[in-house]
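User: For my dataset I need records formatted as: sequence, then C-alpha cells, nothing else. Please produce one.
Assistant:
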Amino acid sequence: MATRRTSFSKLQRDRAKQAAAAAKRERRVARASGEDGDEVEIPTEGELSPQELLGLIEQIHKQYDAKQIDFDEFEEKKAELLARLPVD
C-alpha cells in the first residue's frame, strides 16, 4: 500500500511554525544581547511619586503590547511597581 503524501496545507502550517519559532528566537537573542534600548529601568532606591510609578507601569504595558517583554517579566515588573504605590 502506498503512503499518503503530505498535504500542501500541512506544509504551510509547518513552515509557519518554523518562521514563528525563528522570530521568537531572534527576539530572545536581541533581548539577551541588550539591543532593546527601550527597556524600562525600575529605580530601586529613593521614593517615587505615584505619577512616576504609574508612568513606569504604562511603559511596561507598552513594552508588553509591543512584544518586547514576555508575560512573566511583565507581571514581575508590574507587581514590583504596584507594591511601591502608597496606599492612604
